[in-house]
Design brief:
The complex is a heterodimer of chains A (111) and B (115).
Chain A (H helix, E strand, L loop, with lengths): L2 E5 L2 E5 L4 E8 L3 E9 L6 E6 L5 E4 L2 E5 L3 E6 L8 E9 L2 E7 L3 E6 L1
Parallel strand pairs in A: 2-11
Antiparallel strand pairs in A: 1-3, 3-8, 4-5, 4-9, 6-7, 7-8, 9-10, 9-11
Chain B lengths: L4 E3 L2 E4 L5 E6 L6 E7 L6 E7 L2 E5 L7 E4 L6 E5 L8 E8 L9 E2 L3 E5 L1
Classes of the chains: A mainly beta (111), B mainly beta (115).
């Protein structure tokens, strides 16, 4: 069964203080790994898709990387508006329809 | 904006009542998914459709839950004889089938409270 574990559960940063979020996963075959941002009371918002080890994607202050066992979401010089819960999900090649999500990392950026 | 829409946004019901939620996906997307999310947890897969065909249903989903997508466009999720444990956010997502992509675009969710 596919598994996704995210750490830490919560992260508090000062504005401008860079850090990384971790997503460890177990799948029989990786079809894709996805990062989402979720604000309170809203649905997840798609950020990135990664398909193979070594791949990197960037968007503004965020950069996602992928290895065979984990993915990192690097946040460079965060701003208060980056505060949200960041969710990681995987899709298995054996079952491409559903995504298995981790429980997320709640990021708080203080001004 | 032609994103995923869900209706209603909030539903309060009494235990034992039936409830139905609607999801309208992005128009060119042929896959539609339902997830349930409780506080502090990630979304949990319930079921998904490709066009009008329901291709997978979670083993965790009891017989009280049923979903339809009759014409391959909007979908409904019905919960019969609601229980307090059904209280959660119900999320709908859609995607375009293909070798690449697979990213899912989510609606705002329907928050269900069972009293």
């Amino acid at each position: 069964e596919d598994q996704v574990t995210q750490s830490p559960e919560a992260l508090r940063l000062q504005e401008g203080e860079s850090s990384s979020l971790n997503c460890s996963y177990t799948v029989s075959g990786l079809r894709g790994l996805f990062w989402y941002r979720q604000d309170p009371g809203k649905g997840p918002e798609f950020l990135f898709t990664l398909y193979s080890a070594g791949e990197e994607k960037e968007k503004e202050r965020l950069k996602a990387t992928l290895t065979k066992k984990e993915s990192f979401l690097h946040i460079t010089a965060p701003k208060p508006e980056d505060s949200a819960t960041y969710l990681c999900a995987v899709q298995d090649t054996a079952n491409a329809g559903k995504s298995t999500f981790g429980d997320g990392t709640t990021l708080t950026v203080k001004p | 904006d032609t994103g995923v829409s869900q209706d209603p946004r909030h539903k309060i019901t009494k235990r034992g009542q039936n409830v139905t939620f609607r999801c309208d996906p992005i128009s060119e997307h042929n896959r539609l998914y339902w997830y349930r999310q409780t506080l502090g947890q990630g979304p949990e897969f319930l079921t998904y459709f490709q066009n009008e065909a329901q291709l997978e249903k979670s083993r965790l989903l009891s017989d009280r839950f049923s979903a339809e997508r009759p014409k391959g466009s909007f979908s409904t999720l019905e919960i019969q004889r609601t229980e307090q444990g059904d209280s959660a956010m119900y999320l709908c997502a859609s995607s375009r089938r293909g070798l690449a992509g697979g990213e899912q675009f989510f609606g705002p969710g329907t928050r269900l409270t069972v009293l």
